[in-house]
């Protein structure tokens, strides 16, 4: 069969057939008396094999190895091809998600659509100033898809830019919560931290009537989950967020922070608010005073100072009694501080 007929039957152009021949992938078994290439049935079968392997994503050099090396193991090549296919599928899925998020904004005129696209491009910029401006612009007019802004804030590493993105997302309120809360399951501590700060900002700045029960529950669960995070900074963010709302679940972490830092002053203030709200005889308050008494017996002056720091945030007789004990501390400085505090509280 001559090359033109082979091209028609196989769907492979004559030019490509010649290219295959130049690479040694296929060679006509014979030639006519006029010197024209003549392909046998076996040659045509090999052409179909070449095309089939190419459709799998193999390069021509890989195809040549499969066809010419009997001991060649295609498993590694197929593994690479599978990985590449998955990457292409993931890229297409990201593109689809991107298009759908833009479509949900309902931008019906070209100018608004182009503005949204510009914002999204800026949000992905390597220039932090551009990302910061894009976040602020989105927060003002809602021109950014919430999904895109949520993904950006979770990945942001620059403090100021992340703050601007959190502010912009907080404008969306409850709608942003499901897109942010997924970051709490991320392996990256930075992503979990960004998610936590964003959820707390949404909760603090969104009016109660605009934050539905489902969103409130999702935020609460995320904050409680973070109390057990392996990263101390994440635990402290969650504890302070819960502490500001008077949630006693945060007390164990807050006590640890108050005694060991960081943010011992903020933790002391949160503990004081929780104990005062619960009352001095509540079970939780009893646990707090038990821990404070235990730490007040520490041999470390710094620890006893931190006990005093917590006590100063708690009103009532029980706190005054322990402050009075500290006014007789072996450390002159601590004792003087406790006496001065006690005098102010008794006025």
UniProtKB/TrEMBL annotation:
Q: Which PROSITE patterns match?
A: HTH_MERR_1, HTH_MERR_2
Superkingdom field: Bacteria
MF terms per GO, please? DNA binding; DNA-binding transcription factor activity
User: Could you tell me which residue ranges the HTH merR-type domain spans?
Assistant: 1-69
SUPFAM superfamilies referenced in this protein's UniProt entry, alphabetically: ARM repeat (SSF48371), Putative DNA-binding domain (SSF46955)
Record-linked InterPro entries: ARM-like, ARM-type_fold, DNA-bd_dom_put_sf, MerR-type_HTH_dom, MerR_fam
Indicate yes or no for the key word DNA-binding: yes
Gene3D superfamilies recorded? 1.10.1660.10, Leucine-rich Repeat Variant (1.25.10.10)
- Keyword Nuclease in the entry? The reply is no
* Key words, A-Z: DNA-binding
Name of the featured protein:
DNA-binding transcriptional regulator, MerR family
Q: Species name for this entry?
A: Brevibacterium linens ATCC 9172
